[in-house]
């Protein structure tokens, strides 16, 4: 596969730093566009900076500044637009409607239009399953962002892959989860691990570079969920033999550990349809509840990750 320059808006965030590791390993050049460098951002989140940061090109700037984007988007092959205020910022009431609109809507328009002016055709837009909450501050901005993506695919023949992942804040982000077990309680409800979201982005980039998919002047919109041991039949007959019995069917040896750790074995996870994502991207999520339980057994409540308080 030819080596490309991959532009990552908000590339110093959790997903961007994860992608940098993968892109460097594939021989691509990650071009990180953010207000903070990857090293500065990692010092706040609790994660280590990506390996090989010397090979990452960092450009300090904001997607709300058109001139910043115009300069930064020179000689770029693929844009991955990640930068946004997220649902957590709405939940914690950290950002207001003005801030959500300025970054998530105006910023998204700026990235698409600047990419168009730079002659860039290949684009990955990170949307969210929160589009189902279209009247929320965050969800509404993602609905509008997807509309912008649709317009640019139709009007300018851009090849756009819109990914709709569930929330994917990683367990090592101490700004949100003080311990691994806190993240585990959230993940148990039905979720996707950041490693699987990164997989979906990498496979999207590969599909764009290969240039063989017919986009038909419309975005390719794909849902991104995690891996599950449960079958459709399990979900339909959840705990029909009593609370926690479906959990025991798959994770019996971990049942006592789960209860002792504060997990609820009777909790039925929500699972999304990712059949199209599997088919088109050959997406195969790897991190499941079983992975979580193995990490919990091995490392305890603090988890397997190097952490910073």
In spatial order, strands of the major sheet run 3-2-1-4-5-6-7
CATH topology of the domain at 5-179 and 190-224: Rossmann fold
- Give the tally of β-strands: 7
Order of helices and strands: EHEHEHEHHEHEHHEHHHHH
CATH architecture of the domain at 5-179 and 190-224: 3-Layer(aba) Sandwich
Q: Beta-strand percentage? A: 5-15%
Euclidean distance between termini CA atoms: 41 Å
What is Rg?
A: 20 Å
Q: What's the number of helices?
A: 13
Overall residue-averaged pLDDT value:
93
The global form is globular
Contiguous runs where pLDDT drops below 50 for at least 5 residues: 48-53
In the CATH hierarchy, what is the class of the domain at 5-179 and 190-224? Alpha Beta
Structural class: alpha/beta
Overview of the structural elements:
- This protein is an alpha/beta fold.
- The protein has a domain at 5-179 and 190-224: 3-Layer(aba) Sandwich (Rossmann fold).
- Helices cover 43% and strands 12% of the residues.
- It contains 13 helices and seven strands.
- The protein has helices at residues 14-25, 38-45, 66-72, 87-91, 97-117, 137-156, 180-187, 194-210, 232-236, 245-251, 255-260, 275-281, 289-299, and strands at residues 5-9, 29-34, 57-60, 78-81, 122-126, 159-165, 220-224.
- Strands 3-2-1-4-5-6-7 form a seven-stranded parallel β-sheet, with helices on both faces.
- Helix 6 links the parallel strand 5 and strand 6 (159-165).
- The longest helix has 21 residues, at 97-117.
- Mean pLDDT is 93; it is low at 48-53.
SSE diagram, text form:
Layout (H helix, E strand, L loop, with lengths): L4 E5 L4 H12 L3 E6 L3 H8 L11 E4 L5 H7 L5 E4 L5 H5 L5 H21 L4 E5 L10 H20 L2 E7 L14 H8 L6 H17 L9 E5 L7 H5 L8 H7 L3 H6 L14 H7 L7 H11 L10
Parallel strand pairs: 1-2, 1-4, 2-3, 4-5, 5-6, 6-7
Helix pairs in contact: 1-8, 5-6
């Amino acid at each position: 596969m030819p080596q490309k320059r991959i532009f990552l808006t908000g590339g110093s965030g959790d997903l961007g730093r994860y992608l940098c590791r993968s892109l460097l390993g594939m021989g691509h050049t990650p071009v990180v566009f953010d207000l903070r460098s990857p090293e500065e951002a990692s010092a706040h989140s609790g994660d280590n900076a990506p390996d090989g940061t010397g090979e990452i090109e960092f450009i300090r700037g904001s997607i709300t500044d058109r001139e910043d984007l115009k300069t930064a988007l020179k000689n770029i092959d693929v844009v991955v637009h990640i930068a946004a205020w997220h649902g957590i910022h709405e939940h914690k009431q950290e950002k207001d409607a003005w801030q959500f609109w300025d970054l998530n809507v105006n910023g998204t328009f700026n990235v698409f239009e600047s990419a168009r002016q730079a002659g860039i055709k290949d684009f990955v837009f990170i949307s969210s399953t929160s589009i189902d909450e279209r009247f929320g501050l965050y969800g509404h901005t993602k609905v509008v962002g997807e509309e912008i993506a649709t317009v640019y695919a139709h009007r300018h023949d851009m090849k756009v892959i819109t990914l709709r992942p569930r929330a994917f804040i990683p367990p090592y982000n101490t700004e949100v989860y003080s311990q691994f077990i806190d993240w585990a309680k959230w993940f148990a409800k039905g979720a996707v691990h950041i490693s699987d979201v990164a997989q979906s982005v990498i496979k999207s980039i590969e599909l764009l570079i290969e240039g063989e998919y017919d986009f038909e002047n419309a975005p390719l919109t794909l849902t991104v969920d995690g891996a599950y041991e449960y079958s459709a039949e399990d979900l339909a007959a959840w705990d029909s033999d009593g609370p926690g019995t479906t959990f025991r069917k798959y994770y019996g040896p971990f049942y006592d550990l789960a209860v002792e750790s504060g997990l609820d074995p009777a909790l039925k996870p929500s699972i999304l349809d990712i059949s199209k994502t599997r088919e088109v991207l050959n997406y195969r999520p790897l991190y499941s509840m079983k992975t979580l339980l193995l990490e919990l057994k091995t490392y305890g409540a603090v988890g397997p990750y190097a952490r910073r308080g």
